[in-house]
Design brief:
Strand content: 15-25%
CATH superfamily: Alpha/Beta hydrolase fold, catalytic domain
Radius of gyration: 19 Å
Number of helices: 9
CATH class: Alpha Beta
Order of helices and strands: HEEEEEHEHEHEHHEHEHH
Number of domains: 1
CATH architecture: 3-Layer(aba) Sandwich
Largest sheet: 8 strands, mixed
Helix content: 25-40%
CATH topology: Rossmann fold
Strand order of the largest sheet: 2-3-6-4-7-8-9-10
Distance between the termini: 69 Å
Number of strands: 10
Length: 267
């Protein structure tokens, strides 16, 4: 009986160790190939390179909007790269914003390998670029994060307090997501990542808009609602429909109208 017990413990320990090692591959799904550029979307743009505090060179696009005084700092999700964000960029461009979208380390033409701390460093480098190179003020920068990018956006916003923060289809923490994806194993699995948006958002004083689909098939609505509940005032919650990746498109024109209303409320 005891030998069987110890074998079971050993198997669980080995499995837990394997899961611990595999977590980056389970979270980050970068694509290196840029399939399009903003010129293909009919937009002018500036090809940009910036460097993080730990010496990683990142690639991005600054997409100007004529006479716009504000800029949207775009943090994308865990898969693909900036060339897969045409629809979202076009929406924010129509809403009268300059857009700065860049790839995290290990994505697209950016150097390095993704990690939680690395993504936070990348976010700060993008923020500093807009302040120092493009001469925007803190209040002129709107931080937007979708899915995993929402956690990155919250972490940055808690430190810099931008003009506004928009979170779309994001989750409350890595632990909460693990409980959704592997509900039994998550109880014994050590996590390499925290991505604790629900904790970081408590330090955000900027106006917050949380957008989430009640039909999200990857990140349940309740996790986005948990982030909303933890946020301070002023804040707004917009419910959309559709799946995780295309809900914002399936919910047009309601989605774009809600963004426009939020942006006009907090100029």
């Amino acid at each position: 009986m005891f030998s069987g017990f110890f074998v079971s413990i050993l198997v669980l320990a080995l499995f837990g160790g394997w899961l611990f090692h595999q977590q980056p591959a389970m979270i980050f799904f970068p694509s290196r190939s840029l399939v399009e550029i903003p010129a293909d979307w009919g937009l002018q743009y500036e090809d940009t390179t910036l460097e993080t505090v730990d010496g990683v060179r990142l690639h991005g696009w600054f997409i100007p909007q004529q006479e716009a005084s504000r800029v949207l700092l775009f943090f994308h999700g865990n898969a693909g790269n900036i060339s897969h964000r045409r629809e979202s960029v076009m929406i924010f461009h129509r809403l009268g914003l300059n857009v700065f979208i860049f790839d995290y380390r290990g994505y697209g033409a950016s150097q390095g390998k993704p990690s939680e701390l690395g993504l936070y460093n990348d976010a700060m480098a993008a923020w500093q670029y807009l302040l120092q190179e493009k001469d925007f003020s803190r209040q002129q920068i709107i931080v937007f994060g979708r899915s995993l990018g929402g956690s990155v956006a919250v972490n940055l916003a808690a430190e810099v307090q931008p003009g506004a923060l928009i979170l779309e289809s994001t989750f409350s923490s890595a632990r909460d997501m693990a409980n959704v994806v592997v509900p039994i194993i998550s109880r014994i699995m050590p996590l390499r990542f925290e991505f604790n948006a629900v904790e970081h958002i408590k330090s955000v004083t900027s106006p917050v808009l949380v957008v989430h689909s009640t039909e999200d098939d990857i990140i349940p609505f309740r996790l986005g609602e948990k982030v909303y509940q933890a946020a301070g005032q002023p804040k707004s919650l917009v419910k959309i429909r559709g799946d995780h990746n295309s809900g914002f498109l399936l919910s047009q024109p309601t989605y774009e109208q809600a963004l426009g209303k939020f942006l006009s409320t907090y100029p």
